[in-house]
Design goal:
There is one protein chain. This protein is α+β, with helices and mostly antiparallel strands and about 180 residues long. Helix 3 packs parallel to helix 5. A hairpin with a 5-residue loop joins strand 3 (about 120-125) and strand 4. The chain has helices spanning about 5-15, 20-25, 30-40, 45-55, 85-95, 150-165, and strands spanning about 85, 110-115, 120-125, 130-135, 140-145, 170-175, 175-180. The termini are far apart. Strands 1-2-3-4-5 form a five-stranded antiparallel β-sheet. A two-stranded antiparallel ribbon has the order 6-7. Helix content is about 35%, strand content about 20%. The chain has six helices and seven strands.
């Protein structure tokens, strides 16, 4: 399955099981936004990341952006403690990653998911599209998923289990994911 198909499946399940959360998500990024971010970051986005951002750029609206936290995003999706990053948040975290400047972080890793403090999250390797995970104070894991499509398939499976009532730490109330 392609990243576009996998993300579409996630969006269909979110719309079906948590329509209020789905309605909050913004529209796509533009090619111009992505090209400008690539120029500022000095790196070319992996094709899967580009495809995903052209479907949904998950940056918060300017008025909801909080300069007091490292990362901002739509809380509670894909899980309780982290959120997907839009291109503006990716760019900010890429420039100020807490592990950069040492042997624990590589410049070809582009974060696409994080917690508010950027202590943990996931990244896509711009060279080959594999997905890895970081957690400050622990070893960085590379190749956790073969691709962004594989990762989104796991999110879709989680949403399927939530919708069926078979995911003990999450339920749906008033059209929103509620984490316990």
């Amino acid at each position: 399955m392609s990243v576009a198909e996998s993300w579409s499946r996630v969006m269909t399940l979110l719309r079906e099981h948590a329509p209020a959360d789905h309605a909050d998500l913004p529209g796509p990024a533009t090619e111009q936004m992505l090209a400008a971010a690539e120029e500022r970051m000095g790196i070319t986005l992996h094709g899967d990341l580009r495809t995903w951002l052209l479907q949904n750029n998950l940056d918060l609206p300017e008025e909801d952006f909080d300069d007091e936290v490292q990362c901002c995003g739509f809380d509670g999706f894909p899980d309780e403690g982290s959120f997907f990053l839009g291109i503006r948040a990716m760019e900010r975290l890429y420039a100020n990653h807490p592990l950069s400047g040492g042997d624990e972080w590589r410049e070809e890793w582009i974060p696409f998911q994080s917690d508010r403090d950027s202590w943990m999250g996931q990244f896509i390797d711009a060279r080959d599209g594999r997905i890895g995970r970081w957690f400050v104070g622990e070893p960085t894991v590379t190749g956790e998923y073969e691709s962004l499509a594989h990762y989104f398939d796991s999110v879709a499976e989680m949403l399927t289990r939530i919708g069926a009532g078979h995911y003990p730490v999450c339920s749906v109330a008033e059209g929103r994911l509620v984490w316990s």
